[in-house]
Amino acid sequence: MSSRTFFVGGNWKMNGDKKSLGDLITTLNTASLNDETEVVCGAPTVYLDFARSNLDARIGVAAQNCYKVAKGAFTGEISPVMIKDCGVEWVILGHSERRHVFGESDELIGQKVAHALESGLGVIACIGEKLEEREAGTTEEVVYTQTQVIADNVKDWSKVVLAYEPVWAIGTGKTASPEQAQEVHEKLREWMRANVSEAVADSVRIIYGGSVTGANCKELGSQNDVDGFLVGGASLKPEFVDIINARA
Ligand code: PGA
């Protein structure tokens, strides 16, 4: 096992209300969580303050998106300074739903990554290929291109977690096999070694996302280059505790 701190992010997406998220928060606050694992919950924008005020301090909070500048006439957007003002320290950027449902380009995602980091947020930067890209044998090309744009916008990698999330595995119940996940994670780490630095390749957390559950997390989490998870559906359920404790 590596010395990288295991990182488990929950991505609540556009789900829940104060009642159900409050119940989930109570479950997390009172659960026995592996204290060697870093845990962050991605809350909907309107619940960031609620999540930060109610979650135990040992659990981090993330916004699910933000814009590329600090303020201005950008109706509907939020900025990193606002996120920080709510006591929230992370943001998820480049999620496949932002890329493919809302049409965010690599360029925009890169600008957002740069601005979020300059503003002092930690960034969970997501990449991943679509099914047709995997079937066409272009997985590496796709994830390297996405990672290059992110890398071009990062100065301090200690504030970045890279989330490999194959689009075909997100919300589909079709998890990448531990071998498939390990293969891409290892290649990404080698890409980092060749294109960023030896030190960053060794230290950056590369987490897996896509239909992670309490049932499959232990095997996925035991792969050498899988340093944690970004969890959607299962992060809204008590089984999220089992996922946090995957390496316990
Ligand atoms: P899922 O979502 O766990 O529901 O597949 C993962 C994600 O989108 O981060």
TrEMBL record:
Top-level taxon: Eukaryota
GO CC terms, sorted: cytosol
Pfam families for this protein: TIM (PF00121)
GO molecular function: methylglyoxal synthase activity; triose-phosphate isomerase activity
Biological process per Gene Ontology, one example term: glyceraldehyde-3-phosphate biosynthetic process
UniProt KW keywords: Gluconeogenesis, Glycolysis, Isomerase, Lyase
UniProt enzyme class: isomerase
Catalysed transformations (reactions): dihydroxyacetone phosphate = methylglyoxal + phosphate; D-glyceraldehyde 3-phosphate = dihydroxyacetone phosphate
Assembly description: Homodimer.
Family indicated by similarity: Belongs to the triosephosphate isomerase family.
The protein's name: Triosephosphate isomerase
Organism: Coregonus suidteri
Native organism taxonomy: Eukaryota, Metazoa, Chordata, Craniata, Vertebrata
